[in-house]
Amino acid sequence: xxxxxxxxxxxxxxxxxxxxxxxxTLTATSIKExxxxxxxxxxxxxxxxxxxxxxxxxxxxxxxxxxxxDVEEIEWRPTISELPDWVxxxxxxxxxxxKSISILSTATMTHQTHSNLQFRRxxxxxxxxxxxxxxxxxxxx
Length: 141
Hints:
five-stranded antiparallel beta sheet, alpha+beta, 27% strand, 1 helix
């Protein structure tokens, strides 16, 4: 029976393959975590942006109401080029005496390339007129 001149070649090959598989596994895990982190950052960005847009929609409805205009629904698409996917819908309901109003502002983002991906946030507030002038009114949450 003939023996190989280098009996450790098989052991070295197995060690190299094991090391390579560990490196590949660690690299794949790192890439997966980086993608997950990026998605989380993007989600936080969408949450913050949607809050700002809801607040802006609420402010628009409040301004219309404080000028004694009776508008129940506003649809607003931001004109900023970085926000082409966002639409803000604002619904308001005034009480019969005209002294208070409830406003529901909803910001919706539909992804350009993935139409099944949507992000939506709503904000609801009630405003009560505390004086007869059109100055800033108190806010009741």
